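G.,

No rush on this.
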Amino acid sequence: MFQLSDLICNVVTLQTWINVVMMSGSLITLPTSRTSGAPHLSALPYVSLMEESPHRHRKNKSRDHIAHLAANTDDGRYHLRNNNINSNSTARIKHRKPDTTDTDITKKTSSSMIFKSMMNSTKLFVLVVLCLQNTLYTVMRRYSLGVLKENCSKYEVLLLAEVIKMVYSAFKVAGSLPQGEKPIPKLRYLLRRSSKMGILALIYGAMNILSFISLRNISAGIFTIFAQLKILTTATCSSVILRRSYSMTKWRALISLMLGVILFSEPIWNQSDMSVNPEGGNVFLGTVAVLIEVSLSGFASIYFEKVIKTDPEQLGIWERNYQLAFTSIPIYIAFILWDEGGDIGYFGGWSITTGVLSMLGAAGGLLVALSIKHGDSILKTLATTGAIVLSATLDHFLLGGPLTPIMCIAGTQVVISICNYTFDASPPEAPLQVVKRDGANEEELSSLTAKVEERA
């Protein structure tokens, strides 16, 4: 009789509190058992759940999740806020033992959402196009050098690519201006503010010089192996400069990717003539040069990403490509003069294929910027690495290149590593924030813009 009266008392008290909450919007606190301290929920047949305001994100608590919370509340009380209460939907609360079903479902749902997001995003489209561009560029270059035996200067090809990129970017910048605004003052302003891209162009020039020094002192096979370290240097610079943290799954995927690419290039470093160092070469100097080059490669990628995403000016992709192409042209002109036009003189050995290579090179520069804007430098590296496998496969079937069983195994490892990194279910990183200028810098920027417009 005492237990029955106690039960009736609890029910009446609880019903009274619920009515008060529905009118005043306070917090519901369920009474606890006198003996065990657990929530006294057996007297509660139903608890109503209200959906949140339509101006907020909708949260729906499942029946099992509510029961799980009720059965595992440490302080013996179960709380529900009144904005989660709705008289139109009900959920029966039952005691049950905690299990891992909810956690497993959450993980599977998270993985599925990440996969769908990747498959439906602009980021994936840009990365796929970048991979295809790198593949086509590599196969066309192999056709030009290996089949047609063309011997034009590579610096001339790169120079024309930069000119194409600069002209196209200027056209896009002019097309994006408001109606009535002249493009010439805008382009002049961009050239005046191109110092940051000038630093990047100098880094690329230094990388070309270091490649020349390393190949003069070490074999092409050793150079190929060391060059794959740029995968790890990019991730390391991303962690240090951008303060990103990568899960152990992603680090394992990157290391596996690097080893897979090294194994895939086995026909290069496993040949007797390719593993012999040049006569009179300094192995130590060549090794230091290639290590500095791969370090600069990782730094350049992260530096470019940081400028695009966090620079206070917040210039667009086409504006940054315009600046980068403009500052790169003098560097390639210097390389052409230093190389004296190659083996057959200035602008000798050109053909339609060489022109196509220049256009593909220009498209690659634009796609790299887009991939960094919509993704990050690591995903860009994954796309270019995947292009190595795809281009070698096309080279085998179209041009008779090598494709050994070892290369097939290594190619499979590369693809698996890319998938492991891309579809890792770890929580995503927060987007990079723009560093705001102080008042003085803002006034300086406004005054510079006004001066440029007055001179125009």
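When you get to it, here's the other one too:
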Amino acid sequence: MTSGFFQHAAVLTRDGFLAASSVGFTVSKADFKEVMGCFLDAQKMYKHGCTVNGIKYVAISGNPRTIHCKIGPEGLVCCRAKNCVLVGLYRPPVMAPQAVTAMEMVADQINSGLYNVDM
């Protein structure tokens, strides 16, 4: 993702396979299962947080499409598109609303067919 809002990002298939990621940023199958669980059960996410790339994040907001978690000044945004899941890590000076909006815009572009993401 070249939006400039994310320090690291990854694109995963709906089956949890890593399709693309920035250098040094991985989302394991276990992480993917946890992220998908957060999409499906927000109460669990709020109670237990969400772990990605070995870091446990505290849940800030979540719905069936987008989840937002933080640890200190860093944040994690995950967004479901029609055939993939986007995961991004942002750091200051980027603010949460900017990161969430940027991630949702990319998902919207994938959903509209602007990006061809055949997985």
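Residues 96-112 form the longest helix (17 residues). The mean pLDDT is 91.

Enjoy the weekend,
O.
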